Amino acid sequence: MNIRPTIVTSLAVPAALLALLLSELWLASPCQAIISNRPTWPDLVKWVDPEYPPALWRSGVTGRGSFLLKIDPKTGEVAEVKVLQSTGHTILNELAAKAFLQCKFRPGGRTQATVWWNFYRRGYSRILH
Questions:
Q1: Is the whole-model pTM more than 0.70?
Q2: Cα–Cα nearest to 40, from 73, 74, 15, 72
Q3: Domains in the chain and their CATH numbers?
Q4: In what order do the strands lie in the sheet with 63-71?
Q5: Do 81 and 23 form a contact (C-beta atoms < 8 A)?
Q6: Are 103 and 44 in contact (CB under 8 A)?
Q7: Which of 126, 116, 129 lies closest to 35, judged by CA?
Q8: In the 8-state DSSP scheme, what is residue 50?
Q9: Residue range 65-110, pLDDT digits in tens
Q10: pLDDT: is 53 or 14 the higher one?
Q11: Distance CA 55, CA 43 (A)
Q12: Which pLDDT band, with edges at 50, 70 and 90, does 36 fall under?
């Protein structure tokens, strides 16, 4: 009898749930267990995820925040990041803002975007508007 491994593709398992389950098995630094959920904005040219340093993760520093990205329509660069709702930790707000300032959009497109960002013990997640 020839038994070979198969991958079941008929089950609809959300990618975020699958990534979370796999991160439970990953013995490396859990704060690096990134849920791959890239933005789907059609005018997004470059996305940068905020850093979540292992020291903060191990210390239990977590939080969820909302950020407004103000975009220069001429260049597509993020000109300003405004904290709409704090993560509860200045350092997490700063890490998010630093990353979002590196994002780039297609010139002539949107002038702002809102991002919800979660820093939590299993990695991070984002909700984009």
A1: no
A2: 15
A3: 39-128 (3.30.2420.10)
A4: 78-85, 63-71, 112-120, 123-128
A5: no
A6: yes
A7: 126
A8: P
A9: 999 999 999 999 999 999 999 999 999 999 999 999 999 999 999 9
A10: 53
A11: 35
A12: very low
